[in-house]
Every structure is written in C-alpha cells, then in structure tokens.
Design a protein that fits this description.
7 strands, globular, 34% strand, seven-stranded mixed beta sheet, 196 residues, alpha+beta
Length: 196
C-alpha cells in the first residue's frame, strides 16, 4: 500500500452570484471549492485501522484549502465561511469519508483561512461518477451566524470510480445574498467559543 495518495485529478469550482431573485448585488457573493480524487487504499476490504487516511487528510486539506482561497483571490484571513465534504466510490465506506474529514482535517483548513473557532460543517456519502454532494458552509468563527448557513453543490463528472475517494474543501468571502432571517450577524461575532 502506497504511503502517499495516488491522485487522479484536482478540480476547482468558483461560484459568483451577482443577482438573487429579482435584486442585483452591489458586491457579488463568492464561493470556491476544491476537490481531489484519489485511489481508496481500503476499497473492497474492511480495515479497523484507517489512520493512513488521517495522515493523507492533513496534506490534502492544506492543498485544497490553499487552492480554494486562491480561487477567491483574497487573503486567507478574509475567508468568512468554510466547509468540508467527502464522497466514497461504491467499493468504499462512509467511514472512509469520516476518516478523511474528522480526526485531522480541521487543523490544515484553519491554518490556511486565518483561524476559525467554529466546527467545520461536513457531509459524506457513497456514490458513483457524477454523484453530487451539497458541501455545507458555515461561518468560520461562530456557528450561530444564520446569514452564513449555506451550501454549494459539487459534482465531478467522472468521479468517484468504485475504488476512489473525493475530498472537498469549500470557502466563501461572504454569507448568502440579502440575508434577512435574523439572528447573530457577522459584525456581532465575538469568536470566543465557536458558537457566538
């Protein structure tokens, strides 16, 4: 088993919203996601120890976050929201996605977005080529900022194959267009406990 991921492709998606409903934005809201497709070392077999995926997620997480921030064209500390997602091909397991996202991925993401106190929202699923996943997004310093509750659909036309994994990191430079459902605003964030 290789000690390094066998990467097949890296995919970057940039979304810029200039109008929502019937109203135009003075400043567009922007989201970016970067995904990496690589061979699943545990495809087709059950392994108790998934620590290799923990290790890979640190290097992959740093690379994906840097590419997503670069796609936004902003300094890392200007990132407002973040999120993560993973898709396993059908010979893998949801737990392979969990092993990529939960023990170690938060650290490299936070290190490349100027910090972050809030938990990173996440999603995982099994699927085949072209499978879509809604990458959840939330304010990086305060989970209760309703204006930043959002998502971004990510789909790679030829991935994942049965023996592949897709790991995705997303970032934004703002919340939703024209937020007006109340709650804590981004300007009121204290950034102390990850909630408010």
């Amino acid at each position: 088993m290789s000690r390094n991921p066998q990467i097949r492709t890296i995919y970057t998606i940039f979304e810029e919203t200039c109008m929502d409903g019937v109203k135009s934005l003075d400043t567009p809201t922007r989201k970016a996601a970067c995904a990496v497709v690589f061979k699943n070392p545990y495809a087709g077999e059950f392994r108790e120890d998934l620590s290799l995926l923990y290790e890979w997620s640190e290097a992959l997480g740093a690379m994906l976050t840097q590419k997503a921030v670069a796609a936004l064209g902003i300094d890392p500390d200007r990132v407002e929201s973040y999120g993560k997602a993973a898709i396993s091909g059908l010979a893998g397991e949801r737990e392979h996605c969990a092993a990529l996202m939960h023990p170690a991925l938060g650290k490299p993401i936070r290190a490349n977005v100027g910090g972050g106190k809030a938990l990173l929202p996440s999603a995982k699923k099994l699927g085949g080529p072209g499978c879509a996943i809604d990458l959840p997004l939330g304010h990086k310093n305060a989970a209760y900022v309703r204006s930043h509750f959002d998502a971004m659909e990510v789909r790679i036309p030829d991935a994942p194959k049965d023996d592949e994994l897709v790991l995705i990191v997303g970032v934004t430079d703002s919340g939703r267009p024209f937020p007006r459902v109340g709650g804590l605003t981004a300007g009121e964030v204290k950034g102390e406990d990850g909630l408010r």
